C-alpha cells in the first residue's frame, strides 16, 4: 500500500510554508500548492464568495492560454450558473465536492457549459467549499486540463486534510475578533481605487463613504465642513460619471473584482481598460 502523502516530508514542508504565509499576500499560492499536491490537479482558482457582492478573485495559476476565457467571464456573470455557486447559495456545508457529483444531469448541454465551461479547457474539476459565515465562503476550484492525467487524481487525502485547510483559510480571512475582515484581501485595491483619476482628498471621502460614514461623520474625521464634503462628492461624481452612492459602490465592486489579488495598480483604471476596449 502506498504511503499517505499526509505522512510524508513533502506535505510537512508545504503545509509549514502555508502556515508561515498566513496574513501575507503569498498565502493562497502556498495554500493551493498544498491542495494540488494532495489531489493531483494542476491548476487552482480561489475566489471569495458573498451573498451581497460578486465573487472576488484571491488567487489563480490557470494556464495563460485559458486564463482570459476562465476567470474574468466567470466573475462577470457566469458564476451565477456555476454548480459550486449554487452549493454556496444553498448553504451547503464545507466540503470537497467533485463536479460530477454536484452538476445537473444535463450539465454539458446547458448554455453555461456550451458558452463558458468548454472554453476553460477543463476535463475534470473539484471544488473545496469553505464556509466562513452564513454570508461568505471561500471556493477553491481545482482543475485538470489533460485527460491523460486522470489516473493521478484522488480526493481521498484532501478530504482528510480539509479541517486543517479550512482553518487556515478562515484565519487568513478573519479579523482578530472573529468577524470577516473585508479589508484583508482587498486592502491594496481599496487604497488604490481612483488614484489615477481623483485627488487624494476625493479618495479619502470615497473611502469613508464606502465604509458607511455619513457626510457629517466624514466632515468630523477630516476636520472639514459638511458643505466641503458635499463639494468633494460633486467633484468625484462628475469625474466618475456616477450620480449616487449606490453607483459608486457598484463601480467599486466591479473594479476590485477584476484586479489580480496582489496587483499594485488602480483597480478603476484596470476596469476601464477592460470595459472600454474595442
Would you summarize the structure shown here?
The chain has 278 residues and is α+β, with helices and mostly antiparallel strands. It is built from 13 helices and five strands.
Structure description:
The protein is of the alpha+beta class and 278 residues long. It folds into two domains: 5-173, Transcription factor LuxR-like, autoinducer-binding domain (Beta-Lactamase), CATH 3.30.450.80; 187-275, Arc Repressor Mutant, subunit A, CATH 1.10.10.10. Helix content is 48%, strand content 13%. It has 13 helices and five strands. It has helices spanning 9-20, 27-39, 64-75, 83-89, 99-102, 111-115, 156-173, 187-192, 200-210, 215-222, 226-240, 245-258, 267-275; strands at residues 43-50, 53-60, 95-98, 124-131, 136-144. It has a five-stranded antiparallel sheet, sandwiched between helices. β4 (124-131) and β5 (136-144) form a beta hairpin. α1 (9-20) packs antiparallel against α2 (27-39), α2 (27-39) runs antiparallel to α7 and α10 (215-222) packs across α11 (226-240).
Task: Please outline the helices and strands.
Layout: H1 9-20, H2 27-39, E1 43-50, E2 53-60, H3 64-75, H4 83-89, E3 95-98, H5 99-102, H6 111-115, E4 124-131, E5 136-144, H7 156-173, H8 187-192, H9 200-210, H10 215-222, H11 226-240, H12 245-258, H13 267-275
Antiparallel strand pairs: 1-2, 1-5, 3-4, 4-5
Helix pairs in contact: 1-2, 2-7, 9-11, 10-11, 12-13
Amino acid at each position: 500500500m502506498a504511503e499517505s502523502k499526509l505522512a510524508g516530508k513533502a506535505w510537512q514542508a508545504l503545509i509549514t510554508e502555508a502556515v508561515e504565509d498566513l496574513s501575507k499576500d503569498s498565502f493562497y499560492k502556498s495554500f493551493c500548492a498544498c491542495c494540488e499536491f494532495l489531489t493531483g490537479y494542476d491548476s487552482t482558482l480561489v475566489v471569495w464568495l458573498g451573498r451581497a457582492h460578486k465573487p472576488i478573485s484571491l488567487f489563480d495559476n490557470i494556464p495563460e492560454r485559458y486564463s482570459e476565457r476562465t476567470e474574468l467571464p466567470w466573475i462577470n456573470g457566469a458564476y451565477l450558473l456555476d454548480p459550486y455557486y449554487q452549493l454556496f447559495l444553498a448553504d451547503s456545508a464545507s466540503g470537497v465536492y467533485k463536479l460530477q457529483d454536484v452538476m445537473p444531469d444535463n450539465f454539458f448541454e446547458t448554455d453555461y457549459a456550451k458558452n463558458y465551461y468548454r472554453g476553460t479547457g477543463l476535463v475534470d474539476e473539484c471544488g473545496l467549499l469553505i464556509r466562513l459565515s452564513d454570508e461568505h465562503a471561500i471556493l477553491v476550484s481545482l482543475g485538470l486540463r489533460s485527460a491523460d492525467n486522470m489516473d493521478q487524481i484522488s480526493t481521498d487525502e484532501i478530504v482528510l486534510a480539509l479541517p486543517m485547510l479550512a482553518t487556515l483559510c478562515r484565519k487568513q480571512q478573519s479579523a482578530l475578533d472573529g468577524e470577516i475582515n473585508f479589508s484583508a484581501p482587498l486592502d491594496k485595491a481599496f487604497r488604490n481605487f481612483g488614484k489615477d483619476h481623483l485627488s487624494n482628498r476625493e479618495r479619502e471621502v470615497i473611502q469613508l463613504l464606502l465604509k458607511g460614514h455619513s457626510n457629517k461623520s466624514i466632515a468630523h474625521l477630516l476636520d472639514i465642513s459638511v458643505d466641503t464634503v458635499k463639494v468633494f462628492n460633486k467633484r468625484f461624481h462628475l469625474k466618475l460619471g456616477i450620480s449616487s452612492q449606490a453607483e459608486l459602490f457598484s463601480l467599486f465592486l466591479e473594479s476590485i473584482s477584476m484586479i489580480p489579488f496582489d496587483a499594485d495598480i488602480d483597480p478603476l483604471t484596470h476596469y476601464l481598460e477592460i470595459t472600454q476596449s474595442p
